[in-house]
Amino acid sequence: MGGGTVKGPVSSQPRRGMEKFKVYGVVLKRLRDSDNKEASQPGFEDELCNHFNRLPPSYATEVNVLQPEDVIMHMKLLRRAEDATSRPAFEVRIVQFKTNVDAQTSGGSTKLHSPPTLAVGLSPSLEVAHELN
Question: In sequence order, what are the residues at sequence separation of 6 or more whose Cβ sits closer than 8 angstroms to the Cβ of residue 101?
Fold first, then answer.
């Protein structure tokens, strides 16, 4: 037996960790560029970094960097969920969707639908259970 190296599957973990770090940087920059109140607080950068570090690398692929305020909302929800007196923790917000209106009646323009729709999300495991039922 020689002193050769053991070869195995190449891990994607470092690459996924780098992606998480990049998304963290984009979210932080967007929050600061938007003059977000929370992002200007002392220690926010460390708090955001800890938030990304406590979650799996797949979190980076699920974050919408165009809405970095959602990350702050997620941080707050996780904080509230840790406190047994404030469980369950949830947030509801109004979301308006753009849809194409019939081309004959509007000339093909895009209009906002009224009334607004409430966006309520399920965790992935609950979505799967719902689909199975």
Answer: 108, 109, 110, 111
Q: Rounded to whole angstroms, what are the CA distances from 130 to 13, 42, 84, 88, 126?
A: 31, 42, 26, 19, 6
**H-helix or E-strand spanning residue 16:** helix 13-33
Q: Using CA atoms, how far apart are residues 13 and 41, in angstroms rounded to an integer?
A: 32
The residues that bridge with 94 in the sheet, in sequence order, are: 118
Task: Note the helical H segments in 34-68.
Answer: 44-54, 58-62
What does each of the 133 residues of the chain score in pLDDT, given as a tens digit? 445 444 444 455 667 778 888 999 999 999 999 999 999 999 999 999 999 999 998 898 888 899 999 999 999 999 888 988 888 888 887 766 555 554 455 555 545 444 554 445 444 444 444 454 4
- Give dist(CA 106, CA 28) in Å, integer: 41
Nearest-angstrom CA–CA distance, 23 and 35: 18
Residue count (the chain): 133
Amino acid identity of residue 109, one-letter, is: S
